[in-house]
Design the sequence.
């Protein structure tokens, strides 16, 4: 970050300029935007062998809790821009510390702010730095995404504690044009990251294995120790 003065205020850095060059291994995976129509790579969660970060802050409930705790601006526009800068800054940290950053494919649907940030950094998607995870129902974002979201909505409605999750898939901003915009963003990735019904336990196992062999604890989150809900 760039220091603004001798006090403790800082300006967000220019994320597009600050991301370091990809290493040789990542360059070999780089996807030319002109070739996005080529067959996409399908990977399971446990096939990911590089340093991977799941960006859980982009989740609807985590993002709302973060906003409530951390953002306090006088006008709606200031509030949105402050929140966007804070989330984008954490995404930048994830990008420079990890080879791959995983979003859930429903995150940009649920949040206009997440979609806005992804729009600002399309190259991170086309280069494979940001990838999207779903389950095995997704074989084509354009053909399968709406059906997948409908199934998730119906499943959430049956869950005792899932009302907020269901409501997040039916917000007022989610019209047909918006859903098309989301599908367009998802389609820019050359990867489908798949998860099955045991994916949550697989993520837990991978994290434990990482911590067993490395002495690094990376948290893309709040500074407050009490808010460790963001360290998933």
Sequence:
């Amino acid at each position: 970050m760039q220091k603004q003065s001798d006090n403790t205020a800082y300006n967000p850095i220019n994320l597009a300029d600050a991301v370091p060059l990809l290493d040789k291994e990542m360059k070999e995976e780089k996807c030319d935007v002109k070739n996005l129509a080529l067959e996409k790579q399908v990977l399971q969660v446990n096939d990911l062998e590089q340093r991977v970060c799941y960006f859980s802050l982009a989740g609807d409930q985590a993002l709302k809790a973060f906003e409530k705790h951390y953002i306090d601006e006088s006008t709606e526009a200031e509030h949105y821009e402050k929140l966007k800068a804070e989330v984008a800054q954490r995404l930048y940290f994830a990008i420079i510390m990890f080879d791959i950053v995983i979003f859930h494919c429903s995150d940009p649907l649920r949040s206009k702010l997440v979609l806005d940030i992804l729009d600002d950094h399309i190259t991170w998607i086309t280069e494979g730095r940001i990838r999207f995870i779903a389950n095995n129902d997704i074989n084509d974002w354009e053909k399968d995404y709406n059906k997948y979201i409908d199934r998730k909505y119906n499943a959430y409605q049956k869950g005792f504690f899932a009302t907020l999750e269901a409501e997040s898939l039916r917000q007022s901003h989610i019209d047909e044009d918006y859903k098309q915009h989301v599908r367009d963003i998802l389609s820019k990735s050359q990867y489908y990251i798949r998860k099955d019904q045991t994916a949550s336990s697989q993520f837990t196992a991978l994290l434990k294995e990482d911590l067993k062999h490395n002495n690094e604890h990376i948290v893309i989150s709040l500074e407050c120790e009490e808010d460790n809900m963001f360290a998933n």
In short: The first strand starts at residue 2 and ends at 3. The two ends are 24 Å apart (CA to CA). The longest helix spans residues 76-97. Residues 7 and 132 are 39 Å apart (CA to CA).
